Every structure is written in C-alpha cells, then in structure tokens.
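Suppose you are handed a protein chain with no further information: no name, no annotation, nothing but its sequence. What can you learn? This example shows the usual starting point.
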Amino acid sequence: MKHSINHLTTKISNKKLVLAILFIPLIYVFKDASFKEISIFFIGVLLGATLNYFLFGFRTCSNLMLEKGKTIGVRSVLILFGVSTLLFFPLINMGEFNGNQLFGYVQPLSLSIVIGAFAFGIGMQLAGSCTSGTL
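A reasonable first move is to predict its three-dimensional structure. Written in structure tokens, the prediction is:
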C-alpha cells in the first residue's frame, strides 16, 4: 500500500512539474499580449481540458470501440464532423457572411507552427496519446 501511495504522489508531482515547465514560457509570451489574446488562449485551454475530462477525443473513442465495442464516441465524433461540414461548406461557398469575407487561408511554415506542433505532441501524450501512435 505504501508503494502505491508513493507512486501516486510521484505521478502527481511529475504532472505539476510538466505543467510548470509548459506555463513558465507563457509569462514571457503574455507580457506583450492583449487581454483578448490571453482570454482566447485560456478559453482554448478550458475547452481542451473539458474535452479531455469527458474523454471526447478520437483516440479515446476509437480505443473504446476496438477494445470494448462501445461505438457512442465514434458516432459522436462522426456526427460532429458531419454537422461542421454541413455548416461550414455552405458558408465558404457563399464567400461572405455578415460582411466578412470567407475563404480558405494557408499560411507558410513558421517557428510558431513548429512550436505549436511540439506543444500539441506534449498535450497528446499527457491526454492519453494519439490514435496514429496507438495504431
């Protein structure tokens, strides 16, 4: 019993350390950011944490389908894809909505993309890995 408590304490301490290492650079990034940018960032963090808490991710639902035969997660992700497609394709086809021009935008590779990809990889590992790595 003592070994499992020590293991749990170490695991919690490791998570706190990883979170501290990830959030310390944000102090530098946020020093020149506006309130709107900081708010959008934390809304994204809260949405991601919510989706992670409710196990609403492609890896989790595909794993549940393959291991336990529960398809509700896969069905909900497919419904989400379908609804977003039905909403966005007509809007993009219209070219304009509420006076705003709608178009696909592709940005060239930059350092922010590389850093974002690295942060995404860390987040995927903390949240339970990625489907492509699991398969």
